[in-house]
C-alpha cells in the first residue's frame, strides 16, 4: 500500500461539492472518459500540510445511502466495498448550510457505516444573508467529528480542511443512530443470520430495492435475506429516517438558528418571475433564443480567423517544406483534417458555457419544473429536459444525465430520443452546409443563416419529442412513476467552476474527435493520392490530350483539371463511385458519399473528410468552403452544393445516428445491445427516407 | 392514479393553494418514495405550497425548509391539516 491518503467527497447534489473539489485539487484533476458534471468518476490530488499526498475522489451527488438512482447505487456500492481500490480512508461529507438538516441525514448514514467522516459546511458566505447562526462546537460534540466551515466562493476554510485530513486518524468513528432500536426482534434475527457483520451494513444491503453487486463478497449473500416483505421494509426505512431526524433535531434546535428578519429572500422573488405561468415560459424561450443566436453570431469571428489560419498554414507548409510525400500528407491530409475540427472550438466552448451556466445558477431545476407537465404528455419527465438540453452539447453526457430520472420507462425513452437533439458534432456539418446553400441575408432583423440553424435545433427537439410520443405507446411500463426534484437556491455561477467545465469538456471533445479525425485523414489522404488504374497514373497525359482540341486553357485550369481527374481515379474515387448508386437519390455525389461513410464513426468527421478531399492536389490558398462552393456536379452541370442537396444533407445529419460513442454509452446505460441497435436502424433509416424525400421534392 | 373513493373529505397537499401551509399527517409508505421522506416529508413536518405550474401540476413546495417539486398525483396521497394563515 502506498502512503497516499484516499479521500472521498460525498454530498447531496447542489451543495457545491464540485467547487470544493476544484478548490482542493486545482488543475491536478482527471475526469473520466466523457464529460458530464460529476457523472463519471472524477479524481484529483492535493498535498496536505504534512507533505503527505491525498487522492481525492469526487463521488456523484447523493441524497442518501438508500439508492434511488444509478448514481446513488454507485456510491453505496463503493462504500460497502472495503477491498475496492477507491474505498476511502476518510470521507468528506459536503453539506449546504441552508439545508443542513437534510444534509446531515447522509452524514449520519456514512458515520454509521464506520467510515471516518469530516463534515464540511459549505456556502458559509450565505449564512449572514440568510440570517443563519451556527454553534460549531455543539455540532462537533454531538456528531463526534470535526466540522469545517467552508466558502469556496471566498476561499475560506480550505486550508483548515487540508489540515484536518492530515489528522483523520484521530477522527472518532462512533455511531449516530443504532438501527437495532427501531425493531429489536427483526434486527436481532438479521444479526444472528450474519453474526460477523456490522448491523448497519447488513441493513443497508437488505433494504435496497436493487441487489447490490460490487460490494464485499461477505456481504453478497445478504441480498437474499428476506424475513420481511417490501412493504414492511419500507415501514422500517421510514422509522429509520424518523430516528435520524430525531437525532439531528435534538441538537440542531440549539446549534442552528435562523433569524428570518435578517434573511434576504432573493429566491422567492426570482421564483415568482422565473416559474410564473406566463413569464416563466417566455423567459425560458428567450434564454434558449439567446443561446442559439449567440452560438451562431458570437463565434463567427474567431472561427474565421481559425479558418484563414489553417489555410495559410497549409499553404506555408506546401511552399516551405521540401516537396515529397510527407509534405503532401501534412499539407493535404493532416492540417486540413485537424483544421476542420479546431474551427468549431469556439462554438463548442460557447455551448458548454451556456449549459454549465444553466446548471450552476440553479435555473435548470426551474426548467424541469416548468416543463414536466408538457413532457409527461410525451412519455418523458421534466427531468428529461436536462438530457435534452445538454444533448445540444454532446449526447454522451446527456444519456448519462438521464440517470437522475427515477422512472425506468421515462429514463429509457429519454435515452432513446436524446441523440435526436442537435449535438455539437452536428454543428460543423450544419454550419458549413448552411454557409454554402443559405444566403447570408437579414430579413426582418433576423439573419437567415442563424434562423436555419435554429430551425434545425427545433427540428431535433421536435423529432425527439415526437419519437418519445410513439415510444410511450409502444413500451410497456415497468414501474410506478414518481418525480421529486430539488429546487436549489439561486447562485451566481463561480467563474472557476464554469471555466473548468468549459475547458475540460472542450478539450475532451477536441481530443477524442481529433484522434479519430487524424487517423481518418491519413487514411483518406493515402487513398486519395494513390491509385492503381492506368487512368490514374497517366492522368497528366490523358487530360492534356483531352484539352488539346479545345480552346487553350491557362496553366492553372489545366492543373486543376488534372488534379480532379486524378482524384476521380484514385482508390478513394473508385470507392466513392461504388457507393454512389445508394446515395444518388439523396442528391449526393461520390465525394459526399465518402464523407458520409467516414462520418459513421463520428459526425464531425464529415467536415474533416471533405476538407481532406478538397485539399488533395490543390495548391491555392483558398479556404475549404470556397472550394466546396465552386465544385460542380459533373452530371447535372450545376453546383454540387446547391439548395436541394444542401437541405437533403442537413436533414440526413439531423436524424441519422452516426456516433459510435453514443451507441456504446446507450448499450452501457440500458445494459443490452437491443436498444442501441433499434436506435441505429430506426434513426438512420428514417434519415435516409426523409433526405431522399426532400431532395426529390426540391430538385 | 390511486383510488380516491373515501378520501373526499381529507385534505392533501394537492388541496393547498399558493402561500398556504399545512402539517403533514399521514401517508402510505408504499406510495411515497423514501427519498421524499428523507427530504423531510414526514408526519408532523410543515409543508408550504410556493408555486404551481400550469394545470396545478407539478407543485413547488417547501417541506421542512427544503424546496422541492413533486407531481400532483403524489401530492394527493399525502394527507395534511391546513394551517390557517395569520
Automatic annotation (TrEMBL), chain A:
GO terms for cellular component: plasma membrane. SUPFAM superfamilies: P-loop containing nucleoside triphosphate hydrolases (SSF52540). It is found in: Cell inner membrane; Cell membrane. Residues 4-171 form the FeoB-type G domain. It is a multi-pass membrane protein. Pfam families: FeoB_C (PF07664), FeoB_N (PF02421), Gate (PF07670). GTP binds at residues 11-18, 36-40, 58-61, 122-125. Mg(2+) 2 binds at residues 23, 25-26. Mg(2+) 1 binds at residue 22. The chain crosses the membrane at residues 278-296, 334-358, 412-438, 450-471, 509-528, 647-666, 678-698. CDD domains: FeoB. The keyword Cell inner membrane does not apply. The keyword Amino-acid biosynthesis does not apply. InterPro entries: Fe2_transport_prot-B, Fe2_transport_prot_B_C, FeoB_GTPase, G_FEOB_dom, Gate_dom, GTP-bd, P-loop_NTPase. Keywords: Cell membrane, GTP-binding, Ion transport, Iron, Iron transport, Magnesium, Membrane, Metal-binding, Nucleotide-binding, Transmembrane, Transmembrane helix, Transport. One of its GO terms (molecular function) is ferrous iron transmembrane transporter activity. Probable transporter of a GTP-driven Fe(2+) uptake system. Belongs to the TRAFAC class TrmE-Era-EngA-EngB-Septin-like GTPase superfamily. FeoB GTPase (TC 9.A.8) family. This is Ferrous iron transport protein B. It comes from Sunxiuqinia elliptica.
From TrEMBL, chain B:
It comes from the Bacteria. Keywords: Iron. Residues 11-82 form the Ferrous iron transporter FeoA-like domain. Pfam families: FeoA (PF04023). InterPro entries: Fe-transptr_FeoA-like, FeoA, FeoA_core_dom, Transcriptional_repressor_C. One of its GO terms (molecular function) is transition metal ion binding. This is Ferrous iron transport protein A.
Amino acid at each position: 500500500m502506498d502512503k497516499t491518503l484516499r479521500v472521498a467527497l460525498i454530498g447531496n447534489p447542489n451543495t457545491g461539492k464540485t467547487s470544493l473539489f476544484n478548490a482542493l485539487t486545482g488543475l491536478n484533476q482527471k475526469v473520466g472518459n466523457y464529460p458530464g458534471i460529476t457523472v463519471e468518476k472524477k479524481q484529483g490530488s492535493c498535498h496536505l500540510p504534512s507533505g503527505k499526498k491525498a487522492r481525492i475522489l469526487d463521488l456523484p451527488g447523493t441524497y442518501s445511502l438508500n439508492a434511488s438512482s444509478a448514481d446513488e447505487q454507485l456510491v453505496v456500492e463503493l462504500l460497502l466495498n472495503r477491498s475496492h481500490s477507491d474505498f476511502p480512508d476518510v470521507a468528506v461529507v459536503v453539506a449546504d448550510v441552508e439545508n443542513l438538516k437534510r444534509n446531515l441525514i447522509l452524514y449520519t448514514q456514512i458515520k454509521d457505516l464506520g467510515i471516518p467522516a469530516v463534515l464540511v459546511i459549505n456556502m458559509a458566505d450565505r449564512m449572514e444573508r440568510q440570517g443563519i447562526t451556527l454553534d460549531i462546537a455543539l455540532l462537533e460534540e454531538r456528531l463526534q467529528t470535526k466540522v469545517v466551515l467552508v466558502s469556496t466562493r471566498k476561499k475560506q476554510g480550505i486550508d483548515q480542511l487540508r489540515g484536518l485530513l492530515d489528522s483523520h486518524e484521530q477522527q472518532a468513528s462512533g455511531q449516530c443512530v443504532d438501527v437495532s432500536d427501531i425493531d429489536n426482534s427483526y434486527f436481532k434475527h438479521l444479526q444472528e443470520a450474519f453474526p460477523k457483520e456490522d448491523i448497519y451494513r447488513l441493513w443497508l444491503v437488505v433494504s435496497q430495492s436493487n441487489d447490490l453487486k460490487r460490494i464485499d463478497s461477505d456481504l453478497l449473500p445478504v441480498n437474499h435475506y428476506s424475513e420481511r416483505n417490501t412493504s414492511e421494509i419500507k415501514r422500517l426505512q421510514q422509522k429509520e429516517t424518523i430516528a435520524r431526524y430525531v437525532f439531528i433535531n435534538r441538537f440542531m434546535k440549539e446549534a442552528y438558528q435562523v433569524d428570518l428578519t435578517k434573511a434576504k429572500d432573493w429566491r422567492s422573488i426570482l421564483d415568482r418571475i422565473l416559474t410564473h405561468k406566463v413569464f416563466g415560459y417566455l423567459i425560458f424561450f428567450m434564454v434558449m433564443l439567446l443561446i442559439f443566436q449567440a452560438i451562431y453570431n458570437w463565434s463567427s469571428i474567431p472561427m474565421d480567423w481559425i479558418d484563414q489560419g489553417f489555410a495559410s498554414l497549409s499553404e506555408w507548409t506546401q511552399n516551405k517544406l521540401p516537396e515529397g510525400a510527407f509534405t503532401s500528407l501534412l499539407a493535404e491530409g493532416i492540417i486540413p483534417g485537424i483544421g476542420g475540427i479546431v474551427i468549431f472550438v469556439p462554438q463548442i466552448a460557447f455551448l458548454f458555457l451556456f449549459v454549465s451556466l444553466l446548471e450552476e445558477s440553479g435555473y435548470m431545476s426551474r426548467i424541469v419544473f416548468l416543463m414536466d407537465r408538457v413532457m409527461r404528455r410525451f412519455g418523458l419527465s421534466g427531468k428529461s429536459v436536462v438530457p435534452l438540453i445538454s444533448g445540444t452539447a454532446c449526447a454522451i453526457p446527456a444519456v448519462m444525465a438521464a440517470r437522475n430520472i427515477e422512472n425506468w420507462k421515462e429514463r429509457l425513452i429519454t435515452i432513446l430520443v436524446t441523440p435526436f437533439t442537435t449535438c455539437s458534432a452536428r454543428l460543423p456539418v450544419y454550419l458549413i452546409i448552411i454557409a454554402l446553400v443559405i444566403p447570408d441575408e437579414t430579413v426582418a432583423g433576423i439573419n437567415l443563416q442563424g434562423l436555419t440553424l435554429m430551425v434545425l435545433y427545433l427540428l431535433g427537439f421536435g423529432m425527439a419529442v415526437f419519437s418519445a410520443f410513439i415510444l410511450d405507446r409502444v413500451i410497456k411500463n415497468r414501474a410506478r412513476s414518481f418525480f421529486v426534484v430539488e429546487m436549489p437556491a439561486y447562485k451566481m455561477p463561480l467563474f472557476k467552476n464554469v471555466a473548468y467545465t468549459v475547458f475540460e469538456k472542450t478539450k475532451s471533445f477536441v481530443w477524442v474527435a481529433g484522434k479519430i479525425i487524424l487517423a481518418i485523414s491519413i487514411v483518406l489522404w493515402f487513398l486519395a493520392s494513390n491509385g492503381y488504374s492506368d487512368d490514374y497514373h497517366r492522368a497528366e497525359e490523358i487530360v492534356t490530350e483531352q484539352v488539346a482540341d479545345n480552346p487553350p486553357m491557362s496553366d492553372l485550369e489545366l492543373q486543376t483539371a488534372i488534379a480532379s481527374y486524378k482524384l476521380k481515379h484514385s482508390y478513394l474515387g473508385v470507392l466513392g463511385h461504388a457507393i454512389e448508386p445508394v446515395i444518388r437519390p439523396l442528391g449526393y455525389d461520390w465525394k459526399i458519399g465518402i464523407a458520409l461513410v467516414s462520418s459513421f464513426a463520428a459526425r464531425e468527421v464529415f467536415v474533416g473528410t471533405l476538407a481532406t478531399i478538397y485539399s488533395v492536389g490543390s495548391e491555392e490558398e483558398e479556404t475549404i468552403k470556397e472550394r466546396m462552393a465552386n465544385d460542380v456536379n459533373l452530371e447535372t452541370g450545376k453546383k454540387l452544393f446547391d439548395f436541394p442537396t444542401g437541405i437533403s444533407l442537413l436533414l440526413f445529419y439531423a436524424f441519422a445516428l452516426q456516433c459510435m460513442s453514443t451507441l456504446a454509452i446507450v448499450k452501457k446505460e440500458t445494459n443490452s445491445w437491443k436498444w442501441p441497435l433499434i436506435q441505429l436502424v430506426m434513426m438512420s433509416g428514417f434519415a435516409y427516407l426523409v433526405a431522399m424525400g426532400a431532395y426529390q421534392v426540391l430538385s | 392514479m390511486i383510488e380516491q373513493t373515501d378520501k373526499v373529505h381529507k385534505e392533501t397537499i394537492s388541496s393547498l393553494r399558493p402561500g398556504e401551509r399545512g402539517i403533514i399527517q399521514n401517508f402510505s409508505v408504499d406510495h411515497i418514495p423514501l427519498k421524499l421522506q428523507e427530504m423531510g416529508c414526514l408526519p408532523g413536518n410543515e409543508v408550504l405550497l410556493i408555486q404551481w405550474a400550469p394545470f396545478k401540476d407539478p407543485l413547488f413546495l417547501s417541506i421542512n425548509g427544503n424546496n422541492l417539486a413533486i407531481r400532483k398525483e403524489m401530492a394527493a396521497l399525502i394527507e395534511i391539516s391546513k394551517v390557517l394563515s395569520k
